[in-house]
Design a protein that fits this description.
mainly alpha; 3 helices; Arc Repressor Mutant, subunit A; two-stranded antiparallel sheet; 69 residues
Length: 69
């Protein structure tokens, strides 16, 4: 299992928070669409925006099945 760590410091969103938000989605087709949905649920990447790429990397990793959460 993946270690939990903070991805978005502004909103205190962790890896597991992003994974949980993804699992609430009905489909996993598009990373950018999933990113928008995750933003709505967690509010990550809505502060300074410095975590934008990290959030996309986590979403891609989870959607591609490289990480079990």
């Amino acid at each position: 299992m993946k270690e939990n760590y903070v991805i978005c410091n502004c909103k205190k969103v962790s890896y597991f928070d992003i994974a949980d938000a993804l699992h609430e989605l009905k489909k996993f087709d598009d990373v950018l669409e999933a990113f928008e949905d995750v933003k709505k649920v967690t509010h990550c990447s809505t502060g300074c925006g410095g975590c934008h790429d990290k959030v996309l990397d986590v979403i891609s990793e989870i959607l591609m099945g490289h990480e079990k959460v």
